[in-house]
Amino acid sequence: MIEILNLRKAYGRHVVLHDVNLTLRPGTIHGLVGANGAGKTTLINCLYGLEKDFTGTIRATGGHAVREHTGLLPYEPYFYPRLTGREYLEFCLQARGRPLIDFAGWNQLLELPLDQYADEYSAGMRKKLALLALLVQQLDYLILDEPFNGLDLEANLLLKAILKRLRDRGTGILLTSHILGALTETSDEISVLVGGRIQRHYAADEFGTLENDLLDSLHREKLGLLTSLI
Ligand SMILES: Nc1ncnc2c1ncn2[C@@H]1O[C@H](COP(=O)(O)OP(=O)(O)OP(=O)(O)O)[C@@H](O)[C@H]1O
After folding, report:
1. Where do the structural domains in the chain lie, given as residue ranges?
2. ABC transporter domain: from which residue to which, for each copy (predicted)?
3. Hey, CA dihedral for 41, 44, 48, 51, is it positive or negative?
4. Domain 2-78+139-229 has CATH 3.40.50.300
């Protein structure tokens, strides 16, 4: 289990995260939803150790550093120039001290041209390669920032199936998405981040009210305007 307790992060005088508490359990998909600028990426960066300057506690059971057993899919994966997809996968395994494997079986899933330069891939292919690199590492936890964004319909459907299978095999997954349906279809629980605060935590049997709650909390005034217009 990974626990975030009373996380507070500021950039200068701008407090971006206010006393955030969140738990990521093994065998669970935890969705994180929030408007642009709500603080999702900052939360992920603190969780993964990419931001150091925060207060609060982030701890994994067993006393391991979160990063030891956790993979991150960033919003926009970056690849060094002149590195093929295959070399990137090999680099990721070597960086974790894992033995090299034959990627052929794994690549039947995502069908990437592994011998082309990764920085010449399309946006969707780049996301698939970053995902494939996480899959081959067989990590205990995954943090996925907008994994569905940029993927075609086929890959979206496949990714949902992959995430559910990983969850059933015990992986704990933290997932952000602006596509509410993608979150409610895959997640076991969803936290709503508003202005850097966890506004509410929803269990799966409460997802039915989530869309209307969000509409009301985000757009109450506009909904009033809509009623007067239409
Ligand atoms: N390096 C930084 N320096 C200063 N302010 C930052 C920095 N990174 C993020 N912020 C601010 O922190 C707030 C939260 O940003 P963050 O990227 O975490 O939001 P987000 O929920 O991931 O948004 P989006 O859905 O648009 O990706 C924003 O107001 C942003 O301007």
Report:
1. 2-78+139-229
2. 2-220
3. positive
4. yes
Cβ(37) – ligand 1 distance below 6 Å? yes
**What ligand 1 atom has the least distance to the C-alpha of 178?**
25
38 lines ligand 1 (CB under 6 A): yes
Q: pLDDT tens digit string along 144-191?
A: 999 999 898 999 999 999 999 999 999 999 999 988 899 999 999 999
- As a whole number, the mean pLDDT across the chain is 92
Question: What is the whole-number distance in angstroms between the Cα of residue 50 and the centre of ligand 1?
Answer: 14
| 73-to-149, 176, 183, 192 alpha-carbon distances in Å | 12, 10, 16, 20
pTM: predicted TM-score of the whole model, two decimal places: 0.92
The share of the chain scoring above pLDDT 90, in percent, equals 70
Residue nearest to atom 25 of ligand 1 (CA): 36
**What is the DSSP code (8-state) at residue 55?**
E
DSSP of 4-52, one letter per residue?
Answer: EEEEEEEETTEEEEEEEEEEE-TT-EEEEEE-TTSSHHHHHHHHTTS--
Q: Is 107 in the pocket of ligand 1 (CB under 6 A)?
A: no
CB 19 within 8 A of CB 176: no
